[in-house]
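Re: beginner question about structure tokens

> Can someone show what the tokenized structure looks like for a real chain? I only ever see the sequence side.

Sure, here's an example I had lying around. Input first:
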Amino acid sequence: MYANLIGLNKIKIGAVSYLNTKPLLYGIKHSAIINNIELIEDHPANIAELLLANKIDIGLVPTAIIPQISNATIVADYCIGANATVASVCLFSETTIDNIEAVILDYQSRTSVALCKILLKEYWKREVKFIEGREGYRNEIKGTTAAIVIGDRAFEQAKQSAYKYDLAEAWINFTKLPFVFAAWVANTNIEQEFMNAFNKANAYGIENIDKVVEDINYPFYNLQYYYTNNISYFLDEEKKKGLELFLQFLKQ
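And the corresponding structure tokens:
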């Protein structure tokens, strides 16, 4: 199924350690490609820093950092995207959007923070105070102070907060386009032979969602539904249009 990569230098790859990447990582870890890479898993902001510092060759990074990367190239046909509600990237509060006065920013994210700021200004037409989040910041979601929470923690927070605003859903309502939270981005030239094998490895994981779910014991959300309905992994033309629009907003 996979190209023979013996003899190629090991390529350093960084990937987000959240549940949403499990299918992609399953494919990578269950293919011959795993023998030719050094795989690093961390939260999005740290993977972004590694790619920016040229400490990895390819990263599944927040799309908001693409303009900051020299020679940035999207190198795979797979991503972390959404065509509808994403469930794991939300603005949580104890009041309605019209009454929110401050928003705590998730320190683990760049794209979600940028997306929320765009939506508050352009879609919800709200001016709020932004507060940098720290470890344990979810305890500060109270009164008119809301917070962006992403990843696995968002499923837990959904059971605690009175209001949840799904950022992918809001973006789609606003733009009529899907959203891309993270993409495989390289900052150096990668051989086509490797990329062909890398794409096949990603595809293998998406084709084996049942096996991915079998390996995870997670009580807060139905992962079968998450991987097949909330997350959309293929980087199609509509997602590319959504990504291009998002990057245009960032320039503003």
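Each token stands for a local structural state, so reading them left to right follows the chain. Residues 123 and 232 are 23 Å apart (CA to CA).
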